[in-house]
Protein: Glutamine--fructose-6-phosphate aminotransferase [isomerizing]
Organism: Psychracetigena formicireducens
Amino acid sequence: MCGIIAYIGNKPVMPILIQGLQRLEYRGYDSAGIALVEEGELTIIKTKGSVDSLSDLLRESKHQAVYGIGHTRWATHGVPSDTNAHPHASCDNKLTLVHNGIIENYKELREQLISEGHKFISETDTEIVVHTIEKYYQGNLEEAVIKGIQDLQGAYALALISAQEEKIVLVRKQSPLIIGVGEGECYAASDIPALLPYTKKVVILEEGDIAILRKDNFQVINSEGKEKRVEVIETTWDAHLAEKSGYPHFMLKEIYEQPTVLKDTLRERVSEDQLLLDEADLGDLIPNLRKVYFGACGTAYHATLVGKLYLETLCDLEAETEVASEFRYRDVPWVKPAVGIIVSQSGETADTLGVLSRLKELSYPVIGITNVIGSSVSRESDRTIYTRAGPEISVASTKAYTSQMLVLLLLALSWSKKRNKLNYEKERYYIKELKELPFKAQQVLDKSELFLEIARELKEVKHLFYLGRLQDYYTALEGALKMKEISYLHAEAYAGGELKHGPLALIENNTPVIAFLSNKSIAPKMLSNFEEVRSRGGKIYLFTTLDIKESSFRIVKLPDSDMLVSPILNGLVLQLLAYYTARECGASIDKPRNLAKSVTVE
Ligand code: F6R
């Protein structure tokens, strides 16, 4: 949802801003722009289109400025256009800013500002912010910001500069913003990966923080102007993790990283004879727990469906999950003692955070499962379990999804032990399954030629179905989402038994049905459902851990694995299928149309 980058130091700022924007482009890519100050003159260059279009515009530019701000946009208010692109400037062209978030009271503020003589040129909510700051500006940017933000309602991460002062001012409210600390230079960005080529030392701004960056130092203050002590942390992520490293797309690279990611997620949590997930240890609460409430969106929500199954199966524990945008506004019978589990790759998804705050208001302890250190989910939860997937750049979530399910499985197993439901033999059995998982993930990846072959057939169709029962149904839901998202083919997921209640009407000659089967007990039922499809001309592609002999289906045998582990392996299958189909369709894989990673608006 829009990417922000800023730099102040001794180096020419333009290439730093452009490279930073290229790294942030997965957050939005409908327009891009930069602003810089040189000899007291403010210059703004912006355009509709990608960061590459901006870079083309700047090719002949001779600017040598050493500080500035940049933005890549995912439109909310106002169509993608040169005018609506950020940065936006004040009437006197002395102040400018970039924004990630939504200003909710922008209409009232706009009318008010117009009546005070301000002129607007864009349709954005952001433009009112710069005029509001201009109204209070008397030569000190942070003072104007402290006053100006009191008029704003909504979510905003802002980076501002003035032509009259050599500094960058940042503000964070409900949208992420990170400071990067260099030698004689400071950076800011919407996320850590954008900063990795320059520095590993970062400060994660907290709710309401205002930061002032200068060449040699930075300062963080609160909304009353009081200085705050902040911690500079050193990230363990490496710059190469945020690069394609020879892969044609980030998505493929991230799919292929999964054996390592799964190994990393298991590290120190599974020994020869013990499962340990200290982060999930809520002491005496666990044996008496009556319920778990999940909060998540999109792919992370699909991981929680599997998480719910884990808790029910392994812990005999009731769990409720629903997409966060619905759950946050629903009234349900609130049971106690219960725990909230919030799952989010970015840790910044607005609706997911909405559920988190609601659960906190209801005084439930909350465990956050996230991939990003210092993210809102990690800060606002009582406990955080990190997925250790490394930076996920592709908009379509892959390695974060499988590592979320793995963490949920570890959590369910450790709670199962606490609730006396996991005996020694069972624990040893799961340890063995978990240790084999990264190798089995590699075996799935080794079948990539097969997925490519199937993708070549799928690209010819407009509609396809995904089918499964129980955990395989959750895989089907994620499979259909991934296929729609990156290949733009229309894909629908159904529980095996549901097809005949309506959608079977759409099955005709050669309609592809991608099916998953990893549960022996329901295999006969699924096979009957396949017959229903086949007798209407549908074409079954079956991905299964079972030994099924059926010459009329296309069967891909997956590595044998426990039923509860299979959703993780199936994750790789559905990702490879979607990836190769999108590639065959010539789609823009890492940056699908209309989508952005990290959805920080409702
Ligand atoms: C789909 C996808 C999205 C995200 C969703 C939640 O491939 O990536 O559905 O899963 O926007 O994002 P996080 O996990 O960052 O909260």
